[in-house]
C-alpha cells in the first residue's frame, strides 16, 4: 500500500459549471481539516463536520478524512466521523479502503472502530482481508472471515 497522506491537498469539489473550485481560502481550510484528521484532533474535526463540512471530504487522491485518521492510528476520530455519516468503505483513487489501511499499519483499535462502524473487510483492492492475508495477520483473517 502507498501512503495515502502524501501529496497536495485539494477538495476535488466542482464549481457550478463543473470546473474545479480553486478558491484559495477553501483549499486552505480543506488542507487544515485534512491535517486535523491526520493528527487525530477529534473534537475539532467533529466540529467542522457538524458545521457543514462533508463527512466524506476527500483530497485530490481520493483520501477521505476517515482514511487519513485511520492510516495515522486515530480510532476516536474515525468513530466520530463514522457517527457523522462518513462512509467506512469509501476507497481512494488507488482502490484502498480505510480498513485495509488500518490493517496495513497494524492499527487494531482503528480496525475495531471501522468494523463497529460497518466497514466491509472485502471492500477495496486489495481488500482488508487480502491485506491481512498478505501480511500474515492471522488474527485479523480469522476476525474478517468470522460468520
Automatic annotation (TrEMBL):
Source taxon at top rank: Bacteria
PROSITE patterns noted in UniProt: ANK_REP_REGION, ANK_REPEAT
KW Calcium (keyword) present: no
Protein name: Ankyrin-like protein
SUPFAM superfamilies named among the record's database cross-references: Ankyrin repeat
InterPro entries the UniProt entry points to: Ankyrin_rpt (IPR002110), Ankyrin_rpt-contain_sf (IPR036770)
Keyword Ribonucleoprotein on entry: no
Keywords: ANK repeat, Repeat
ANK repeat start-end pairs: 61-93, 94-126
Region spans: Disordered: 1-24
